[in-house]
Amino acid sequence: MKKTLFSLSFLGLLLVAHAQKQTTITETSENIADANGNALRVEIFRADTKTILKKWKSKMKNYDGEVKIKKDELTATNVIISLISEHQIKVYAKVKDYTKESKEVFFIFLNGSQAVSSSSDISGYTAAKEIVSNFASELSKEATEKFYEDQDKALNKLQGELKNLIKEKEKAEKEIEDCKDSIKDNEYKIVENKDKQADLVKKIETQKKIVKDAKNNKEVFE
Question: Which of 32, 81, 95, 209 is in Cβ range 3.0-4.6 Å of 49 for a Cys bridge?
Answer without folding.
Answer: 95
